[in-house]
Amino acid sequence: MTRKEIALATIERRPAPRHSAGLLSAGTWTIIRGGSTLEEMLELPDDLAALVVKTSYESLSDLVWVGSGYHNLAIQALGGEIKFRKKGTPDVKSTLLKGPTDVDSLEIEKSLRSHSGIVNLTKAHKLVHDSIGQERLVGSSQWGPFTLTGHLLGVERVMRAMMRRPEEVEHVLSFGSDLAASYLELFAEAGAEI
User: Fold this and answer.
1) pLDDT of the chain, 194 residues: tens digit per residue
2) Which residue in 57, 59, 63, 37 sits closest to 48, CA to CA?
3) C-alpha dist (Å) from residue 115 to 13, 51, 109
4) Residue 82 half-sphere exposure, CB side, CA atoms within 13 Å?
5) Does the pTM of the predicted model rise above 0.85?
6) Please, what is the end-to-end C-alpha distance for the chain in angstroms?
């Protein structure tokens, strides 16, 4: 069995010669270990892909996560401000929304598909998939809708509104669900299988 077949068998709870092993969401670790930063690698999709492939071989990983550590790019694509750190993932500097209905004016598809960083990540993902996708399970990740809602509206505001104005949270949460799905769809188009 290939590493990919072992990973799929493990996920599906089918017999395999061993349990699957992989570095879970190790994008940031991979890049820092390679001597670079997420911000630098975001501009170098070919180099990012090569580093991910190299690390997957060195770590004997069955699962490969491309784009891990870049989840807040979706917020930036919508007009939010993020801050890249020397080590670690970028932080959301401030909430994007002043109120829950502000999501009604945001265009998810256009924003995500035109963001240069996301475009480069999907390019890197396709390169990794084309290189090792037959032998390893290649995937991507994104925050869930609730985390995205907290980044968009502010965690404290979301926590308070859950009790006082749950319809506000539900409105932004629905948008966060669409945002997560649309972001991940870009990677599915580039070959993500998980």
Assistant:
1) 999 999 999 999 999 999 999 888 788 899 999 999 999 999 999 999 999 999 999 999 999 998 888 999 999 999 999 999 988 899 999 999 999 999 999 999 999 999 999 999 999 999 999 999 999 999 999 999 999 999 999 999 999 999 999 999 999 999 999 999 999 999 999 999 99
2) 37
3) 38, 22, 10
4) 22
5) yes
6) 19
Closest to 64 (Cα-Cα) out of 120, 154, 125, 114: 125
CA angle 45, 50, 53 (to 5 degrees): 125
DSSP-derived letter for residue 87 is S
Tell me which residue has tokens 């180099």. Answer: 47
Single out the residue of 186, 188, 152, 156 nearest to residue 76, CA to CA: 152
Helix or strand or coil: residue 82? strand
Helices assigned H by DSSP within the chain: 3-11, 27-33, 38-42, 45-59, 73-77, 108-114, 116-132, 145-153, 155-164, 166-189
The closest of 143, 147, 161, 160 to 101, measured between CA atoms, is 161
Would you call 67 exposed, middle or buried from its count of C-beta atoms within 10 A (0-12, 13-18, 19+)?
buried
Residue type, 76: Q
